[in-house]
Write a structure and sequence with these properties.
This is Putative secreted protein. By secondary structure, this protein is an alpha+beta fold. It is built from four helices and eight strands; from the N terminus they run H-E-H-E-E-E-H-E-E-E-E-H. The protein has one domain: Protein Transport Mog1p, Chain A (3-Layer(aba) Sandwich), CATH 3.40.1000.
Amino acid sequence: MRRAVPILAAVLVLTACSQPTTGSPSGSDTGGSQTGGPQATTTSGKPGSTTAEPAKRPKTINVREVDPCTLLTEAQRTQFGTDQPPQKGKVPGFDWATCHFNRADGEYLVGTTVIGTEGIGFYTGSAQADQAEKTEVAGFPAVLIKEPGKLPKCTIAVDVSDGQMVDANVSSFGNAPIEELCRLVPQVAGAVVANLMAK
């Protein structure tokens, strides 16, 4: 059985560690509430490990050829305070393209992942299924995964097609609390989906 969440968390930490940052964490506003797109709406209840991959979507979006660094516009990156150049990467062992948007102050890190080989069943059918909370982004089925701890991270995976999804995530080296990251990630996911819909 695949352990999805720890793999992605480790990859994000390794990628982020390779990106130098300057300055010190600030307690300033971390991106505002307006992203020009929809936000995720969380529902009560969590999917079980036998939950089938949802199929109801506003439209089907093929993301296999999408560059993850194009999933946030320059204006949106500015709103989230990610003022460093986008950094492309890959999830080791998977054909998943990633992009990380860092902040010079190191307060948090925003990431996007294009996954053309797995749907959100990758999360809901894993050993961490009880951590995958059902949510929705602009009518698309999604799950939110909260990972508190010394390196907190919040991820929203959005089901965009059968066997395909996109991840939006916000993580920290401990400079921002998990509550702040989970407040911000629905805005990131909403911006990502709005940009995909516009393609």
